[in-house]
Design brief:
By secondary structure, the protein is α+β, with helices and mostly antiparallel strands. 36% of the residues lie in helices and 24% in strands. The chain contains four helices and eight strands, in the order ααββββββββαα. It has helices at 3-10, 19-26, 110-119, 121-156, and strands at 31-35, 40-42, 50-56, 59-64, 70-76, 81-82, 96-99, 103-109. A four-stranded antiparallel β-sheet has the order 1-8-3-6. β4 (59-64) and β5 form a beta hairpin. α3 packs across α4. The termini are far apart.
Length: 171
Amino acid sequence: MTDLGQRLRRHPFVATLSEDNITTLESCGLSYLSFEPGDKLVREGKVADSCFLIDRGDVSLEMYVDRAESRVLQVVHAGEIVGWSWLLPPYLGTSEATALAPVTALRIDADLLRETMERNRDFGYAMLVRVCAVAVSRLEASRRELLDLYARERTESGKRPIQPGDMRRVG
């Protein structure tokens, strides 16, 4: 087994994948990359051609407020993935992903990954479940942050704080 294969098998994203599916994933243009602080892994609005499994370091996910200013939405750590915009058309990054410290990551070629998911439906389903779990987790974190922001604004404006039951869970 190659060093890349060993690194892949140690990553939490593939922990419950079958050995056949891990071998299939290895065939999707797998490479190992290093990034310095400030390097971009993904650019907002640019073609999303990679999925990164973060091996070491932290990556901020940022969105531009205007052309000059961005806001950090979340920080992704070792053991997580960066990049799921490659999954759905138009395959454009929905945020900036910036290395906050030295980062090492397994890079998966998005075109090869999509083609393989289409051809091998069992593999495709297993990958889709994992990527959707990441998307849901990030959406929930964003929702919590919005609720915190809303609560702070209410408190600062003199309105009563949000009480349990004020916000209905939807979905």
